[in-house]
């Protein structure tokens, strides 16, 4: 079967040498409104560069409305203000990216991301405010940062009653010293939950946004920060007990944030998502299904129909990557060993030791029905334990296309005042 897969790849793959070679993907995307761009690691330069080129083409040629990424809402909203020419934004791409100071900072505080947001800002120059392309975060980890942003917003625009209600929610979390795991253990085992307070806060801010249209995006930001607070509370409380449930809370949060962003941008909004392959590739085509896990790729396909969604996975055969040896450990450049024999990446390499693009169809009798190991590297990585980094995947059901980088290179972390952040 491996030989048949290799021959199929040889016949169907398009060699990737220049950005123009990705036009095959732009053509395949057609009029679809949701384009999901993956990555096999959070620390590979080529994944960021290729996604930038694809995003640029989608924005320029097909009028996509915004990019939503696997990142925290408050930090990404600073980027959004910068790329949309907000006068209150910090003056440079590097200054705004320095806001990503919580581990793993290199995911966005890197030179490749700086190139993306510099281009976005230039693209938005001289465009009407409602036509400027945005940049938003979908993740759930920024509980305390989001609460601080809500307080700042209500100090400027809220009534004393609204501010008092918000501070009641903030005070509930004060005892946990900005540590989600501390809160999660207390809520899970001792019943000391802040859920009621943050749910009320979200309802209040949503009602305020519906009622007040004077600064729609600032109100949207406050509402999304409250949504983070609601779902982060749930995430940390659940994480202590069950990893699969906490994963589902996180990905459902991303999809709900995406839904609210799309609704804000109107019925014709077109959306680009940047996230790890494990989020954007359909979970039903992997062993996540047996574990009761869902993800963004599955949920967006279910919500909008497969005909309106295009998911692109990215992978590499070998190279280098930025990662940590443990959660919170210093980042390091690590070697990515050659892919395991019989894995998807090794078969792509065997079909051609060069970068390539492969369009996929779930009806394909060869690529759609054989579960293959597909490498996934997280922010914590141990190259010596490679075998555990492979996700059994029905590739043509997981993605609509796959971009293979035969030899990849580590991201370039951002340096502020000669210090890596």
Describe the structure.
Keywords: Methyltransferase, Transferase. InterPro entries: Emycin_Estase, Hydrolase/PRTase-associated, UCP036794_erythomycin. The chain is of the alpha/beta class. The protein has two domains: 1-64 and 270-412, EreA/ChaN-like  fold (3-Layer(aba) Sandwich); 138-269. It has helices at residues 2-12, 23-29, 45-62, 73-83, 93-97, 111-124, 143-157, 160-173, 180-190, 195-211, 216-239, 243-264, 277-280, 296-304, 344-351, 395-398, and strands at residues 14-15, 34-37, 66-69, 134-137, 271-274, 309-323, 332-336, 356-359, 371-375, 390-394, 401-408, 415-416, 419-420. Strands 1, 2, 3, 4, 5, 6, 7, 8 and 11 form a nine-stranded mixed beta sheet that branches. The protein is globular.
Rg over CA atoms, rounded to whole Å, is: 21 Å
Number of strands: 13
The CATH class assignment of the largest domain is Alpha Beta
> Shape from CA axes?
globular
CATH architecture label name of the largest domain: 3-Layer(aba) Sandwich
Count of separate structural domains: 2
Reported by name, the CATH topology of the largest domain is EreA/ChaN-like  fold
Assign the structural class, choosing from mainly alpha, mainly beta, alpha/beta, alpha+beta, or little secondary structure.
alpha/beta
Major beta sheet summary: 9 strands, mixed
Brief rundown of the structure:
With 421 residues, the chain is α/β, with parallel strands linked by helices. The chain folds into two domains: 1-64 and 270-412, 3-Layer(aba) Sandwich (EreA/ChaN-like  fold); 138-269.
Keywords:
two-stranded antiparallel ribbon; 421 residues; 9-stranded mixed sheet; 2 domains; alpha/beta; 13 strands; 16 helices; EreA/ChaN-like  fold; globular; single chain
């Amino acid at each position: 079967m491996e030989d048949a897969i290799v021959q199929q790849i040889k016949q169907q793959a398009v060699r990737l040498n220049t950005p123009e070679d990705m036009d095959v993907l732009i053509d395949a995307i057609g009029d679809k409104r949701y384009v999901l761009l993956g990555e096999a690691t959070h620390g590979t330069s080529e994944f960021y560069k290729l996604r930038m080129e694809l995003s640029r083409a989608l924005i320029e040629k097909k009028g996509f409305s915004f990019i939503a990424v696997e990142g925290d809402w408050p930090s990404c909203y600073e980027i959004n203000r910068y790329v949309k020419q907000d006068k209150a934004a910090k003056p440079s791409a590097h200054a705004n990216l320095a806001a990503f100071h919580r581990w793993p900072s290199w995911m966005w505080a890197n030179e490749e991301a700086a190139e993306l947001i510099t281009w976005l800002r230039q693209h938005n120059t001289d465009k009407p405010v409602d036509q400027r392309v945005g940049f938003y975060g979908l993740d759930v980890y920024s509980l305390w940062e989001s609460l601080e942003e809500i307080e700042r917003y209500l100090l400027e625009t809220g009534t004393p009653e609204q501010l008092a209600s918000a501070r009641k929610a903030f005070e509930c979390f004060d005892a946990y010293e900005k540590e989600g795991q501390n809160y999660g253990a207390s809520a899970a085992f001792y019943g000391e939950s802040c859920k009621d307070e943050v749910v009320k806060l979200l309802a209040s801010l949503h009602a305020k946004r519906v009622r007040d249209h004077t600064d729609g995006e600032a109100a949207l930001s406050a509402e999304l920060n409250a949504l983070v607070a609601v779902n982060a509370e749930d995430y940390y409380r659940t994480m202590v007990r069950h990893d699969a449930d906490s994963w589902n809370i996180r990905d459902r949060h991303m999809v709900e944030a995406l839904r609210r962003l799309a609704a804000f941008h109107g019925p014709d909004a077109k959306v680009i998502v940047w996230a790890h392959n494990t989020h954007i590739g359909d979970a039903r085509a992997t062993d996540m299904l047996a574990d009761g896990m869902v993800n963004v790729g599955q949920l967006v396909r279910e919500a909008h129909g497969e005909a309106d969604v295009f998911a692109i996975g990215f992978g590499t055969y070998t190279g280098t990557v930025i990662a940590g040896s443990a959660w919170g450990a210093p980042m390091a450049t690590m070697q990515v060993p050659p892919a395991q024999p019989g894995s998807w990446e090794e078969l792509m390499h065997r079909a051609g030791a060069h970068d390539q693009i492969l369009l996929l169809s779930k009806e394909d009798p060869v690529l759609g029905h054989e579960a293959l190991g597909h490498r996934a590297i997280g922010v914590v990585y141990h190259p010596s334990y490679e075998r555990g980094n492979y996700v059994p995947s029905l590739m043509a059901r997981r993605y609509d296309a796959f971009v293979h980088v035969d030899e990849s290179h580590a991201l370039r972390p951002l340096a502020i005042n000669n210090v890596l952040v």
